[in-house]
Amino acid sequence: MNSLIRKAWGSVVHRLAFGSSSNEYRSPTLEYDRFLQMMYIHDSSTGEFDRIPIDIFLQILRILGPKESARLRAVCKSWKFILSDNRLWIYFLQNEQEPWSSVFFAETHLRSGYPLQMFPTQMSDLAFMHIYSQRVQVPGAIIIDGGSGYCKYGWSKYSSPSGRSATFLEFGSLESPMPSRLRHFFSTICHRMQVKTSTQPIVVSTPLCHCDDTQSDKNSRRRLKEVIYSTLFDMNVPAVCAVNQATLALFAARRTSGIVVNVGFNQTSVVPILHGKVMHEVGVEVVGIGALKLTGFLRDQMQQNNIKFDSIYTVRTLKENLCYVALDYEVELSRDTRASFGVSSEGQFTLSKERFKTGEILFQPRIAGMQAMGLHQAVALCMDHCHDAELTCDDNWYKTVVLAGGSACLPGLAERLQKELSELLPTSISRGIRVLPPSHGADSVWFGAKLVSNLSTFHTSWCVTKRQFKR
Q1: Which long-range contacts (CB under 8 A, 24 or more apart) does 114-123 make?
Q2: Strands, DSSP E only, in 141-217?
Q3: Is the pLDDT higher at 444 or at 23?
Q4: Pairing of strands 258-263, 400-404
Q5: How much is the pTM?
Q6: Residue 256 φ then ψ, to 5°
Q7: How confident is the model at residue 43, as a pLDDT?
């Protein structure tokens, strides 16, 4: 123990000498003498360690780590007192793989499960020692984000998805799936991950489809979830959590209310969400422009300008690496915007105005020969509906716009959308609007599922078991 205290003291001395907010240097020798004066070693019923200053105890506990620290609660009063301090366990959580900001958001906003609480839990009400022990015991889950274009899958304890596949090529549409096709989809993913379906819970993102508030669409959404649950339970999955993609993208941005603009494969959806619930009754706006249209428009532009390429994969790669959205389209037309990018096995490609014209069709579909609302108009319409619905006394819930989807990662899209909304909407609505780019790029939905599946209360508050499903 003596050597451990000396090691901890060395850490404290270093912090005091070099980590002070002032520039004054403190002598380690003088500080150590002061430390000795503070440390009274006397026999007592609770042990000599009760006389050690608290900051030294904290250093000892941090060196020991969470498991060893938890075992020492019975040593003396000082151990027990410090181990009950939330700050120590927050420190341990901050040193885990998942960012502390995400852990804090999840545990204060999502731990109660669905439906979410209207008011988040206060940090003072949470026992982070208990939360830490629960999170350690959560075994993790298989996450399958079956997007309309690309499926991302992986283990919730990993830092990112472990694999991707082209959903539309391998499995077709998942919006109205047949059980046999859906079973093939899930079993293929599990085979690629080399896991047995009977061993781990599965988190599935449900596609954004059947967006209206009609009884027909409500039934279609319910049937889709039922098919997902029944298919997975027939594969002996112990527990299933199915959440729609827009809500998971919102969670990834550490929000529970707002408007999610999901630039999908075939279309773009503008989805109002209040306390984690999609407000179909307010209205989900759909713009018939998605990643496929953007890639196709860039392909047409390249062909018109005699830029030769071998495959659509090349075009998509150039879109992802060279294209952007102009803040002012007319001004951008007069600028030199040439830039080059090398595609393996095909060489170097140089694009100019194609770079920003591609993303411009989101705001001016007529450029691509389409009769449709611009993205800014669809979002403004959704905000108007949210404002008129008066669902809460606070109008700010719909003023956060979260972008999601691979093509939503185009540089400049968030800034352009915010500018257009400010000019299009009356001041009473536009004041305070924030447009957030995808928090985790094209993988935002997967990361939202990761937040849920690593929750301390994941199994009890978010999962459905086969027995519960049958009820």
Answers
A1: 114/243, 114/276, 114/461, 114/462, 115/275, 115/276, 115/277, 116/256, 116/275, 116/276, 116/277, 117/275, 118/275, 123/86
A2: 142-146, 150-155, 163-166, 202-206
A3: 444
A4: parallel
A5: 0.87
A6: -115, -15
A7: 35
| Phi and psi at residue 420, to the nearest 5° | -65, -40
Cα gap 299→319, rounded to integer Å: 9
Rg (CA), the chain: 27
Query: Which structure tokens are listed for 273?
Result: 């969400």
C-beta neighbour count of 305 within 10 angstroms: 11
Q: Distances from the Cα of 405 to the Cαs of 69, 77, 80, 170, 250, in angstroms?
A: 43, 52, 48, 19, 12
| Tens digits of residue pLDDT in 231-263 | 999 999 999 999 999 999 999 999 999 999 999
> Is the backbone peptide bond immediately before 115 cis, with ω within 30 degrees of 0?
yes
Dihedral of CA atoms 194, 198, 202, 208 in degrees, nearest 10, equals 90
Q: CA angle, 299 as apex, 294 and 300 as ends, to 5°?
A: 100
**Residue linked to tokens 């959308």:** 417
CA-CA distance, 60 to 11, in Å (whole number)? Answer: 10
238: closest CA among 459, 11, 4, 7? 459
Contact 436, 413 (CB under 8 A): no
DSSP character for 117?
P
Q: Which three-class secondary structure state does DSSP give residue 268?
A: strand
